[in-house]
Amino acid sequence: MKISLSKKQISDELSKINIHLNQIESFSEGTSKSTYKIKTKEDTMILKLFSNSDYNTIKGKINLLHKISKYYKHAVLPTNREPLIIQGVPSYIYKYFNGEIFSKIKIKNKSFEFGKIVAGFDVTLQKIPLNQSVVSDEDLLYLPNQKYSDSRISKLTNMAIEMFKTEISNIDLSKIRKQYIHKDLHYHNVVYNPANKEHLIVDMDGISVQYLPREIAVSIGNLLLGPSNNFSKINVLKAMQGYNFILALNNEEKKSIPLFIIQKKLGEIDYLHTQLSETSKENIEEIKSINKFIELSQKALKYTLENYDLLMDFFLKSDFKLLKK
What we know:
Layout: H1 7-15, E1 23-26, E2 35-39, E3 44-49, H2 55-69, E4 84-86, E5 89-95, E6 100-101, H3 110-125, H4 137-140, H5 151-167, E7 178-181, E8 190-193, E9 198-201, E10 208-211, H6 213-223, H7 233-246, H8 251-255, H9 257-277, H10 284-306, H11 308-317
Antiparallel strand pairs: 1-2, 2-3, 3-5, 4-5, 6-8, 7-10, 8-9
């Protein structure tokens, strides 16, 4: 959701902590538009605001990002240890990374390289200790059950919820690893610099404990369909090979990927409809953008429901192994 703060309000607040802006611009990529690129005389930085969170929640996220930075250099590292309050909204700042979002770049073996990025981050997150006793399956398997004004979407999401509840009984959850994951690691949340082959993982405020295959299910769900709404088998295969090159999933974890695609797409649709309800009717372009993302999520969800057994068979039986150098 876009936070209604003027550039002057942001500038005035930052000047109180000795950050004096020469220039500020809002990012318009994706669905989260509460991120700003700010330039001072000395540096360029990114300001991320959290309108729906409180001080302590954002402080916890900042602490977690600093822990991750001890093991991983390609992730957002806030320059502040305590949340900055901008007009009552908690926020953090991190240094600008010069690159393009991964969806816009052209590199060889793109989906394979992205799978490696996802797996590399997951391997790092395995180093962050977690208390298994406070992680409940009820929380990890949460499904939104919002009623939508569009009956077609309600029918689709209800079918998805029923299938999820049915198919979860066919998965041995005791064999699926739990750990911290990004939870939204797709092409729009990786900034890549082709010149030096460096990258930065962004939008990390959702990091929490989940089942491990839920991570790769995010990017697979986005790669699932090609331009003609057919199964994008090669891209999905390459992404899984890239992931497996760094981190191998066991059979039960591979079997569960379609299930977690369903869970993720249900969450996306719910989040996007919430955004839609909070967007002014006068903001036609914003409404168009959100509806576009809703349509993409619906198509991927519908395909997964209609081809669930085929997809489960694909992930379970395909050979994702490549010889490591």
